[in-house]
Amino acid sequence: MDKIRIQGGIPLKGKVVLSGAKNAALPIMSAALLTDGWVTLSNLPALRDIQTEKKLLSFLGASFEEGPEASLRINSSKIQRMEAPYDLVKTMRASILVLGPLVARFGRARVSLPGGCAIGARPINLHLKGLELMGARIDLKHGYVEAKARQLQGAEIVFDIPTVTGTENLMMAACLAKGKTIIGNAAKEPEVVDLANFLTAMGAKIEGVGTDIITIHGVSHLHPTPYRIMADRIEAATYMTAAGITGGEITLVNYDGSCLETVMGKLREAGLEFSQKKTGLTVHGPQKIKSVSLTTRPYPGFPTDMQAQFMALISLGQDTSLIKETIFENRFMHVSELRRMGADIQVSGNQAVIKGVSRLLGAPVMATDLRASASLVLAGLAADGTTEISRVYHLDRGYEGLEKKLLPLGARIERIKE
Ligand code: EPZ
Asked: Which of 6, 64, 181, 354 gives 321 a disulfide partner, CB atoms 3.0 to 4.6 angstroms apart?
């Protein structure tokens, strides 16, 4: 397993070009199953999870072509299998996003239950309840979901929790259902909006996406379309935090800070400054980081996917901060690793109290999940001495070419092949 070695303490300066958003690309690739022509997707990020999604779609029978300017063309005319096997789903929970499209277009699907993951149990009961309301018969057998429906019917669905992939799965299913579907307490994440924009470009009739109530009027079929995936806002926020934690200055090329209002508000509280130019958004890191408290919330609240990275930043704060994680039950696994680098963090339940320290010290640490590993990279960039991060395959799932993007900024970072 590869490692990443970082010599910390260097203020990062320069430009970063953002990649496409992983959490928009995955549902949009799954949505290609809803039509039978060549869908052309551009700005797809080169990530492990995208490769896994391609493997899953080709297992189902989809074919692929390289399109112009590194775009990917997907054709779902010859889908022969309706099954997402365990050995693929276990490596990527987002595989569950083929469930809605398969049932909607082919009337059946057999998808391995994703099981828990490092950050929590992450059940899919709300996905299944919504499909049942739409008339699907759902059986759970031998670790698989078996779903059948001759024709999905529009329904009124209200989520107990605004689940992101639950909203995406049911929005995709509803596009080809008979009649009108209303999803109440829907997720409002920008990636859900990006998926809806793609579906609408394919001829879907969707209203209210980005609000609590999404209405979908089913149509008989969807036509293929070219589409450009939105920029990755979590990658953007991670590089903003890199400028903050190293006291440097990074310009995010062709980015205007959209979809990150809450995160940028908290980064400003920590002392970072932003200036929007024609070339992009420049982030100035402070000499002294201010302690800031926050609670993670569904969009437009502070995103759970930035909690670990922000904790690394405020571990160097001048005072004490409180972070409350309300989305996942076990998303503090970066804490013990940050402690090994000298951070002073106490966890009780879903709250972490972070007492700022004057400096972090490089150390050998281990990545446990995607955003925890990003947090350790940030800490390593700021720490005195050398940090070695093992199990960086977690990073490769969600950050395209991390060291290639950090090296031009002056970071002393290298990947050690093991
Ligand atoms: C999506 O996961 C993202 N993944 C996650 O990003 C992100 O952290 C999460 O949304 C929250 O924003 C993708 O988009 C591929 P949820 P998802 O369903 O959809 C509970 C990353 O780092 N819940 O919104 O799985 C669930 O347990 C990843 O890129 C149920 O109880 O998250 C959790 O506590 C990590 N029953 C809460 O809702 C359900 O049926 C929110 O989960 C569904 C969810």
From this structure: 354
Q: Which residue has the tokens 């569904």?
A: 298
User: Which pLDDT belongs to residue 386?
Assistant: 98
Cα 239 to Cα 259: distance, rounded to the nearest angstrom: 15
| Pocket (CB within 6 angstroms of ligand 1) | 23, 26, 94, 120, 122-127, 161, 163-166, 187, 304-305, 327-328, 370-371, 398
Q: How does DSSP assign 324-369, residue by residue?
A: E--S-TT--HHHHHHHHTT-EEEEETTEEEEE--S--B--EEE--S
Low-confidence ranges of the chain (pLDDT < 50): none
The domain segmentation of the chain, as residue ranges, is 2-15+232-417, 24-228
Mean pLDDT across the chain: 96
pLDDT at 122: 82
What is the per-residue pLDDT for 92?
Answer: 92
* Topology at the third CATH level for domain 2-15+232-417: UDP-n-acetylglucosamine1-carboxyvinyl-transferase; Chain (3.65.10)
Q: What is the DSSP string of 77-92?
A: TT----EE-HHHHTT-
SS3 label, residue 46: coil
CATH topology of domain 24-228: UDP-n-acetylglucosamine1-carboxyvinyl-transferase; Chain (3.65.10)
pLDDT at 165: 98
The pLDDT of residue 119: 84
The reported pLDDT for the residue numbered 333 is 95
In this prediction the pTM is: 0.97
Q: Do domains 2-15+232-417 and 24-228 have the same CATH topology?
A: yes
Q: Could you give phi then psi for residue 112, rounded to 5 degrees?
A: -60, 140
Q: What is the pLDDT of residue 68?
A: 86
CB atoms within 10 A of CB 343: 24
Tokens of 213: 């109530």
Residue of 22, 164, 233 to mutate, ligand 1, most atoms within 8 A of C-beta:
164
